[in-house]
Design a protein that fits this description.
38% of the residues lie in helices and 24% in strands. It contains ten helices and ten strands. A six-stranded mixed beta sheet has the order 6-7-8-3-9-10, with helices on both faces. A four-stranded antiparallel beta sheet has the order 2-1-4-5, with helices on one face. α3 runs parallel beside α5, α4 crosses α5 and α6 runs parallel beside α7. The two termini are 13 Å apart.
Length: 270
């Protein structure tokens, strides 16, 4: 992990009361297994929030609950000041256009080219002509640092890092206000992961995005996250800055942020 490069500058934190996402009292459950119970979380407008936790704590489940792929048993999820859990399908569809999602594996359609993948949300939510969709796809490809010729390639012809960038380009197709990332650096080598971290931060600053990022990558937490939310014991134990994390006495938090890998990340990003 010592190969990771220096972090980009942190953005100024948003005011604590400027929450673009509010999760209150959420309980998620599959059969008899309770994943979250009475979970609360605020995501501030314009911040990069990293969500961490041990295996089985429901990090990806929380992301999918917020975007509506999983319905909570109890509690509310508010995005842009609206209770998404109470919306009908048509109203919810209008709000879905205001966020983009990059799943861990990129979730690209293997039978479509990169450009065609980027155009999927444009076809779903708009009626713009083909030539305009082609222009938007080309712009998004350039925005994420891919070469123009990548647009004509299929996912199987791309490296893992290129597929991540292609998936990111698709998540930005509708010019979202919120970007949800599920383990964006998983499977990347340290140099590629560091480059992806910096790409996320540059895009966040340039586009004014709010970023909700599920990650286990300590280097990403140091490099680009304004705050960190720790999932444990079926809820968010704490949400705060890296310096606040380092002061916690909870056993899991202390082990995570003070263990051998944490020391390596801290030394690299000091």
């Amino acid at each position: 992990m010592s190969e990771r490069i220096e972090p980009v500058l942190q953005a100024a934190p948003a005011p604590a009361d400027d929450a673009i996402i509010r999760v209150r009292g959420v309980k998620t459950q599959f059969g008899t297994q309770v994943i979250h119970d009475n979970l609360d979380l605020d995501v501030r407008r314009g911040e990069v929030l990293g969500v961490v936790g041990g295996s089985g704590t429901g990090k990806s489940v929380l992301l999918r609950t917020i975007i509506g792929l999983i319905r909570p048993r109890t509690g509310t999820v508010e995005v842009f000041g609206k209770n998404l859990t109470a919306m009908d399908a048509n109203e919810r569809r209008r709000y879905e256009q205001r966020w983009g999602v990059l799943f861990q594996d990129g979730a690209l359609f293997s039978s479509l080219t990169v450009a065609q993948n980027i155009q999927v949300p444009l076809r779903e939510y708009t009626d713009m002509p083909q030539h305009l969709m082609d222009e938007i796809a080309a712009m998004k490809i350039s925005m994420v640092g891919l070469a123009p010729e990548a647009g004509a390639k299929f996912p199987s012809e791309l490296s893992g890092g290129m597929r991540k960038r292609a998936g990111l380009a698709r998540s930005l197709a509708l010019d979202p206000e919120i970007l949800f990332l599920d383990e964006p650096t998983a499977g990347l080598d340290p140099i590629g992961a560091a480059a992806f971290d910096q790409l996320i931060r540059r895009l966040q600053q340039a586009l004014g995005l709010t970023v909700f990022m599920v990650t286990h990558d300590l280097d990403s937490l140091h490099a680009i996250c304004d705050r960190i939310a720790v999932l444990a014991e079926k809820r968010v134990l704490i949400a705060g800055s890296m310096s606040e994390m380092l002061q916690q006495d909870h056993p899991w938090i202390r082990e995570y942020f003070h263990g051998p890998r944490a020391r390596a990340a801290t030394a690299t990003n000091a």
